[in-house]
Amino acid sequence: MRMSGVGLAVLVVGVTAVSYGAVVSNLVADAGFETSTVWSYPNADTAPWFSTGEGNQAGWVSRELVIVKSGAQGLKFSTWAGNAAALQNLGVTLDSNTVYEISFAMRLDNLSTNPSQTNATIIGVALGSSPVLGGAYSWTGKSFYELAPSTTGVWETITLTVDGSDAALVDNHGEYLQLTLKKFNNAKNSEYEVFVDDVVFGEYTTGPPPADLLLGFYGSRLANPDFHAPGIGGSLYTSTADGIGVDTTAGSSDGTYGTFSGATILPTGYKVHMGTTNKNQRVDVQILNNTGSPLRLDSVSFDYGRWLAAGPQDVALAYAYGDLSGIANEDVLFTATNLAVTGSSGDYHDFDISLSNLTDRVLADGEKATFRLSIDNAVGPWDKGAFDNIAIFGEVINASYETWVTDYPSMSGSPDADPDHDFDGDGWDNLMEYALGGNPVNGFINGHIPVYANIGSVLEYVYAMRTDDAALTYRIEVSDDLVSSTWTNSGTMVMTTNVTGGSFDFVTNSIPIDEIRKFARLVVEQ
Hints:
Layout lengths: L5 H4 L12 E2 L37 E4 L9 E4 L6 E10 L5 E11 L13 E8 L7 E10 L8 E8 L12 E8 L9 E13 L7 E5 L9 E2 L3 E7 L7 E2 L3 E2 L3 E2 L2 E2 L7 E5 L8 E8 L5 E12 L7 E9 L8 E6 L8 E2 L2 E6 L7 E2 L4 E9 L7 E13 L4 H5 L24 H7 L14 E5 L2 E9 L6 E7 L13 E6 L5 E9 L6 E7 L1
Parallel strand pairs: 15-23
Antiparallel strand pairs: 1-10, 2-3, 3-10, 4-9, 5-8, 5-10, 6-7, 6-9, 11-12, 11-27, 13-19, 14-18, 16-17, 18-27, 19-26, 20-24, 20-25, 20-27, 21-22, 21-26, 28-29, 29-32, 30-33, 31-32
């Protein structure tokens, strides 16, 4: 504890009397193809992976012992394979209220020397269903085609999302699912062999948000954020000129705000294009502080996808408008140019932009700030991109002496910023200035000066008490002289506290006047 010293005693008056998202569990058996002891796995007689009814030829799909992602074995599709597949009955029924994630490691390797094998090396994923587990399965209508890593000779994870409420699956709700990894006939005689490992199918859940996430949007708009911390309000506005808005068929699939967890992998993006009436089409995100305390804004995160080569390839983040001081409206905080094509759905570009260089990044209670994401440099007005997973990070500033003193940069270091130092020489040390709402660098601004009055046989002493710092303690002490330094709070009593609902309450104390002279002082400790 630190006690405020000399300045406290001078509050004495009188001679006669004184006055602070991931998969829950993997439903795939033998996810790494480790259980097989035969080279032709999977085939019509194997489990849990099999290939019956898919037209597989011997050797088209087989176990792999050399090029593996993890463990000792994997799966290989040969260059000449076409309409070859590995299937597994998952033993789970399709739930319309569930989002599923499918992922697997994929690698293209062993370039063919056969001049007739020049087709693209791609595979697909299909879902089948059956009313009975192990019964007759039929295609659900949900498939993913032309899947491949971005380069050859390295492992990459392919991640897909299936929304149980998808219209393509409406007739399959409640039926048992079958997962198929398939090299379709259009990939027969491909340039490379395909290697697969570590297959995952499971229920997807959004990852836990970071502790400093204040506001997040990954599909909602207007005053309906997908996430908001207690006391935080927010809105997202898309420019609606030329039909721009939310696209539920596009978006980032990584489930992160920039690089931070807490978003969703479901496809929903905030579509943007240059348009014909407004250049630099934009998405505005506004944050409102209703916490009752100051709110520090630390960073803005977002994802951006350039859908096609002709699409907008430059993005910018700007402070649009609001209550932050010393920052001009439309002040550009960040730009990125010549961004690579991502496609309309997939792993978008991730951005985490610090706000530490802003002159002011603290919102008082009731204040707001609006940030703007915009695009530029597209071939034509209708060539599109999309923002997704937009978030603002920061922290509620719980009042403390240490935080308060940073508002006065002229009081830098010791002893100027020490609680028991009287920087402005007005008789109140710095801690007392803080406790009573004074200004430590201006001796003419004392904040809430205590007041007192004789009421019969008692002295009523009223002082202000901060409501936002529970670490502070206030008390009245009395003494019969100023020489012995013997102070006590014996006989003093708190009568009432006027709760204002603001930054300070006002406490009335009763001090008996039972001696010829008595001195009183206010003591504040932290």
